[in-house]
């Protein structure tokens, strides 16, 4: 493997990059167990316990029963009758996240947070003089435990895709290193459902075509991939070979921001739905204003009482500059959907396509979304 291929860089023959992906272990639930001794060793779910509640995070004890984030609370309780629900404390989670990021910056100039509980670090330049990325990852994990009382898992490799896969290998509290030359073989042992960026719909399509693992995907040539997956062919071809050209970016441009709200009682009337839309738009605009973000695309998300979810989007030719304009676009999206065929249990709004931004789209911070539940 050439240096260029190993590092995932195009063009010049550059040195192999050293990337660490750090992922906190069951972050929200672990914070609650840390702060409340009575919860330690017990199945814990962060989220609402009501009939309309949703699990935001689950402890490892709860995960043994199949409890997962985004699962309806009533389903989680059915699967784990002893499950203990704890309301989220996002201010606490954010404070701890800032503390952890400060640790990261002692070891890397390039730190790319993905959410409150995970981040990429580029340690190609040995800022702390520890001699290796593995030693750096080991020390970061030790400091996180010592300074926060929480555990983190880490993956070390030559690109972001493999580092993220590696961090999930030995959870919780694990460290996995995939060196150059071993990446393709590692990727090909994994289920395609482990690949970041391949969602349930694409995974189901792949499995219908006989692709279950990275090895199955690697066996398909570019022409076959293009015939079945169109513009995603090159990306999938690279994933199966452990190739990822993305760099760690300290200040990634804002792609989208949003909010959503789950309701205790289903919304049935137009008045109720419009009032809920106005509330969520106000929250989203407050966030956009704080970031001085002016977007052109509004996406409306509705989840019906049977958990079927629809999304509708509308783009305007000018950046949205105030809350009233955001609501007006939201109302325009909502109008053709009314009257609704059944009750609405969740309503969400996302603003994207910001000024100066490329057309790529990225999911909003889960912490921002969950803070409205």
Automatic annotation (TrEMBL):
| Cofactors | Mg(2+)
Q: Where is this site: Substrate discrimination?
A: 28
Instruction: Explain the purpose of this protein.
Output: Poorly processive, error-prone DNA polymerase involved in untargeted mutagenesis. Copies undamaged DNA at stalled replication forks, which arise in vivo from mismatched or misaligned primer ends. These misaligned primers can be extended by PolIV. Exhibits no 3'-5' exonuclease (proofreading) activity. May be involved in translesional synthesis, in conjunction with the beta clamp from PolIII.
Gene3D superfamilies registered for this protein in UniProt: 3.30.70.270, 3.40.1170.60, 5' to 3' exonuclease, C-terminal subdomain, DNA polymerase, Y-family, little finger domain
* UniProt-listed PANTHER family: DNA POLYMERASE KAPPA, DNA REPAIR POLYMERASE UMUC / TRANSFERASE FAMILY MEMBER
Provide the catalytic activity annotation: DNA(n) + a 2'-deoxyribonucleoside 5'-triphosphate = DNA(n+1) + diphosphate
Cellular component annotations (GO), alphabetically ordered: cytosol
What does the subunit section of this Swiss-Prot or TrEMBL entry state? Monomer.
Q: Provide this UniProt record's keywords sorted from A to Z.
A: Cytoplasm, DNA damage, DNA repair, DNA replication, DNA-binding, DNA-directed DNA polymerase, Magnesium, Metal-binding, Mutator protein, Nucleotidyltransferase, Transferase
Stretches assigned to the UmuC domain: 19-199
Tell me which family the UniProt entry assigns to this protein: Belongs to the DNA polymerase type-Y family.
Where do the TM regions start and end? none
Q: How is the cofactor bound?
A: Binds 2 magnesium ions per subunit.
DNA repair among the record's keywords? yes
Q: What are the binding positions for Mg(2+) in this chain?
A: 23, 117
Spell out the protein name for this chain: DNA polymerase IV
């Amino acid at each position: 493997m050439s240096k260029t291929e190993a590092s995932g860089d195009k063009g010049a023959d550059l040195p192999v990059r050293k990337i660490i992906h750090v992922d906190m272990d069951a972050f929200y639930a672990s914070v609650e167990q840390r702060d409340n001794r009575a919860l330690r060793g017990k199945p814990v779910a962060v989220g609402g316990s009501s009939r309309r509640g949703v699990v935001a995070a689950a402890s490892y004890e709860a995960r043994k029963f199949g409890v997962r984030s985004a699962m309806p609370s009533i389903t989680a309780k059915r699967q784990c009758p002893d499950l203990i629900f704890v309301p989220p404390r996002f201010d606490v989670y954010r404070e701890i996240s800032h503390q952890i990021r400060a640790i990261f910056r002692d070891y890397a100039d390039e730190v790319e947070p993905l959410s409150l509980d995970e981040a990429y670090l580029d340690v190609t330049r040995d800022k702390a003089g520890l001699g290796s990325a593995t030693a750096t990852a080991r020390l970061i994990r030790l400091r996180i435990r010592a300074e926060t009382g929480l555990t983190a898992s880490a993956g070390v490799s030559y690109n972001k895709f493999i580092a993220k896969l590696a961090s999930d290998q030995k959870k919780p509290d694990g460290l996995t290193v995939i060196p150059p030359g071993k990446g393709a073989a590692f990727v090909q042992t994994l289920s395609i459902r482990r690949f970041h960026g391949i969602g349930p719909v694409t995974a189901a399509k792949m499995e219908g075509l006989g692709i279950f693992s990275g090895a199955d995907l690697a066996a398909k040539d570019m022409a076959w991939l293009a015939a079945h997956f169109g513009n995603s062919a090159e990306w999938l071809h690279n994933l199966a070979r452990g190739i990822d050209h993305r760099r760690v970016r300290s200040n990634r441009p804002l792609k989208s921001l949003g909010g959503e709200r789950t309701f205790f009682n289903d919304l049935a009337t137009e008045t109720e739905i419009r009032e809920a839309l106005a509330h969520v738009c106000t929250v989203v605009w407050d966030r956009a204003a704080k970031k001085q973000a002016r977007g052109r695309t509004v996406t409306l998300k509705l989840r019906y009482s049977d958990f079927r979810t629809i999304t509708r989007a509308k783009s305007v030719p000018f950046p949205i500059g105030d809350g009233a304009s955001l609501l007006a676009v939201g109302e325009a999206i909502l109008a053709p959907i009314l009257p609704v065929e059944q009750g609405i249990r969740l309503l969400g709004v996302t603003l994207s396509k910001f000024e100066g931004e490329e057309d790529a789209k990225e999911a909003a911070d889960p912490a921002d979304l969950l803070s409205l539940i």
